[in-house]
Amino acid sequence: MTATTPTMLDILRFGQAFEGGTEKQYATHFERMFRKRGYQDRHLETLEGSLEVYLQVAPKYRKGNADLNARILDWGITPGTYRQYQADGRRMVETFTGELQARRARRERQDGFARLQAIVPDMISAVLLKESQGRNLPRLIDLARARGWDMCDITRERIISLREDCLSTDEWARVKQAAACLDYLRQFPTCVPFLPHDEIGDLAGVLRLDTRLPAFLDEEAQLWVRKTTVVYHDDMLTEEARCATAKEYSESCKAVYTASLRAYMREAHNDCDLDTVNGLTALFRPDRIEKTLIRLCRKSGTPDGLAPRTLSSYALNLKRTLATQGLAEEAAKVERLMKTLPVLIEGQAASKMMSPKVEAWCRDLLNDPNAMELFETQHFLYAEKALAAMELADLEGIDLLAFSRSPDTQPLTPERSRLAADLLRQARMYGTCAAFAAIELEGAPFRKSNVIADLRLSGHPQTFFDHRADKTRPRLEIHIPNELLKNGDAMTKRNQHLPRFIFDKDGLGADGYRILSFYLTRIRPLFRGADLSDHIFPAIEAEPRSLVISTFDGWLTECSTKIGLPLLPHNFRHGVSTIEIFHDPTCYAELETLTGDTERTLRQHYAFIDRERQSRTLQQKRYQRRAQRMQASPNAAGVPA
Predict the structure, then answer these.
(1) Global pTM?
(2) 315 and 174 fall within a common domain
């Protein structure tokens, strides 16, 4: 569906394709840098093909790097040979990305930077400038030229923005030193015409903060959300009973309510000063509600706007929140606007059917057999990449478990520490996605909040059962009760419950058992929250909670994109249903049991599959009739194509 991110193996094969010349030497030395460490092709396929990752594996030689020097001695090469291999390997990466050719072209430019560089040697010769002060100017100049800037374009804010282009903090430090050199040269009148118009100033400790919501309003919004997302039973006589029987919304649902309030507040900023407003209630005067929602509707469909479906959902959340706060008139105003504003009406209608974007994704899946195969086997690919990252750590002598617990106390150089952090992230990221995908594909397509936040090894309700030690029937089981499901109340009313999903070691679900067992044994301990939480997917930090949902979203997006099938967690639910219906049009009853959605809802959402099948069936019948006519009428067969 999309091109995958290049890997180190892609770069190696690219270089090996050259028949000779300098590029062939680059490829040879690039390969030697990895083979010396014991890296095989499966490891190179795991490493992202970027200069940043290359420099983690093959750092620039420094005499004071005792660990690197020890490895060079062990490999039986000299520091000079290492420098040659390392530099050529870097040029191989830059040749693959086109950066080497682009940088050489930038060096040839005759611009304001070139005019400054022409006088720097004279300043050094006259002892007006130390050589060390001007050493980092070429790096700043190259980054600026890559942005299309000349010296006259340089400002303090633009220098700060170059931090995004730096591969490391060391490189950013070089840019800041170069900026300080430009300011230093301002004291010499002959240099001023070659410098930026304004002084750049001290860049030490620069932080770029960009927030439009005052803290006091955001805190009050969180209080409103907490009050709205807890449902109490009115028939309880005591406060103790009310609290004991209260039902709290899921964290993902709370996040949507928070997003709704924040989107409203940011738009209301155009109508009033948020820093001086007297609390959150003041933002919801009926006239202000009209102006704000109308502006949001006008923006819908633009790059900065919300989709009608999302905007309608946000408006509904606002109405419920206002009603909970006792603001009945304001809630009624939102409800009237939902019934009259065309964009909100469109959004409500869209919420009852599959969005065009999701339907297009499902159609693409059906029309591409390779994508369909990739979708159903992605958990194996994620597991292989997680295992390869752990093997790389072993080859580099890095204890990932110890590093995950206390990275600052490990005897690692800055470069190796960055490599360890990168490998730890890959192991966690790919291992988590492998386990999640195994649950979705080998078990059932649960909603992500049910998997990430609700799967627990103990507590009440316990939802994940580890029976691997059972000698008669080793297995893993998942059972999620209705009280945790988004549509759980509706399922209870129709006397429906999700079954217990079992992953047997030998039998049905064996692939899921193998991947989940790998995750529980090798990957989960790499999360610092594993010792403090019974969640299957614990927090990265040492906190007694589950993995942050937004972190998982980012991981799945990255992992799926790298295997060539970009998807979101909710795509599992749609992908599983789409493929099953495509292969068996009569499977709606089974899908109802698997997903918890009614057969009517499923038929409504996936009607396009039947329509396409019917269209192809009719097309096939037409071709058959036409073929029969061709046989009956030889003249028709002679028409040229």
Answers:
(1) 0.62
(2) no
CB under 8 Å to 82, separation ≥6 — which residues?
61, 68, 72
CA gap 219, 623 in Å, rounded:
66
Share of the chain above pLDDT 90, in %: 32
Distance CA 141, CA 115 (A): 12
- Cα separation, 567 vs 590, in Å, equals 24
Is residue 33 assigned to a domain? yes
Residue 54 lies in a domain: yes
- Residue ranges making up the domain that contains 326: 215-352
136 shares a domain with 57: no
Yes or no: say if 530 and 521 are a contact pair by the CB < 8 Å rule: no
As given in the structure block, the two tokens for residue 144 are: 């600026």
**Which of 352, 379, 394 is at the close of a domain?**
352
The answer to whether the CB of 523 falls within 8 A of the CB of 386 is yes
pLDDT tens by residue, 378-418: 999 999 999 999 999 998 889 999 999 998 888 887 778 88
What is the DSSP annotation of 156-204? HHHHHHGGGG-SSHHHHHHHHHHHHHHHHGGGSTTTGGGS-SS-----T
**619 domain-assigned:** no
Question: H helices of 396-478, where?
Answer: 400-405, 414-438, 448-452
Same domain (yes/no): 93, 151: no
Task: Count up the domains in the chain and report the number.
Answer: 4
Q: Which residue has the tokens 């295997």?
A: 563
Q: Is residue 203 part of a domain?
A: no
